[in-house]
Structure formats: structure tokens, C-alpha cells
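Regression test case RT-17, inverse folding.

Input:
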């Protein structure tokens, strides 16, 4: 990871979206595309996220590197939270910087799709009706 390519992290801590955007921003970028995933209200009280953190970070670094190979982008930062989160709390932030919007949007979509397919992060929804593990993207779920 270098300053030019951006930070990848798995954390229990909340994060400041604007601070990340400011960190990614470069003078030559005409586009900064962000994806912010939050815990949605699907009748749950809490979402618990678990990760094999070391492998998750390495896999997200690989995904970032693939995005750099496939799209003319300048920077990527990915932050994924784990732990117990309530409805409305931030789960995932992806910021992609590029010269133009089309490349930034395409790279961001690629990154989120690949994270859902291959990063070892699991979600459990906990509500008044009990708890359930959310199936992953590769199994056809809406995780």
C-alpha cells in the first residue's frame, strides 16, 4: 500500500467520510466516486459483522490492485467495519479517484462486486424475531 494507491482497512471504529474523501483527492482528479454502505432497517436491531481480518485486508488489496490494472484510476480507499452495528451506522466506504467520472464509477462498481464475492466478512442480523446469518453474494443473497 502506498499513499498514491490508498489505504485498505478493516476496523471496529467509525470513520469520517469527508476526511477519507479529502485524503484521496488530488489536483488532477475530475471525479471522486464514493460508495457508502450502511445497516438498513430490515426489521433488525443490530447487525454483527465478523471477518478473518488479515485475509480480508489482503483480498481487498488484491481487488484494489485489479481495479488499478483494469481502469485508469488514480486512488482507492476501502474501509470495512466489523463488530456490532445499529441501523443507520456505516459499514463500508469505497472512494475511487480518477480523471473522469465514467472510469471512477466503473471501478467503484467493480470493487464492491468483488468485495461481496470474495472477501471473508460475514453478517449476522439480530432482531426481536431472532438472529440469522446473511447469505453472501456468491450464494445469491443480498448481503
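Golden output:
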Amino acid at each position: 500500500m502506498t499513499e498514491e494507491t490508498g489505504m485498505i482497512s478493516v476496523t471496529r471504529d467509525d470513520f469520517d467520510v469527508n476526511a477519507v474523501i479529502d485524503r484521496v483527492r488530488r489536483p488532477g482528479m475530475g471525479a471522486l466516486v464514493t460508495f457508502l454502505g450502511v445497516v438498513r432497517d430490515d426489521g433488525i436491531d443490530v447487525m454483527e459483522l465478523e471477518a478473518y481480518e488479515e485475509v480480508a485486508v489482503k483480498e481487498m488489496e488484491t481487488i484494489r490492485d485489479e481495479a488499478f490494472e483494469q481502469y485508469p484510476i488514480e486512488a482507492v480507499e476501502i474501509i470495512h467495519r466489523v463488530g456490532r452495528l445499529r441501523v443507520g451506522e456505516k459499514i463500508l466506504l469505497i472512494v475511487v479517484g480518477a480523471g473522469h467520472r465514467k472510469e471512477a464509477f466503473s471501478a467503484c462498481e467493480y470493487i464492491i462486486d468483488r468485495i461481496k464475492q470474495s472477501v471473508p466478512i460475514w453478517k449476522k442480523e439480530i432482531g426481536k424475531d431472532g438472529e440469522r446469518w446473511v447469505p453472501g453474494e456468491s450464494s445469491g443473497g443480498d448481503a
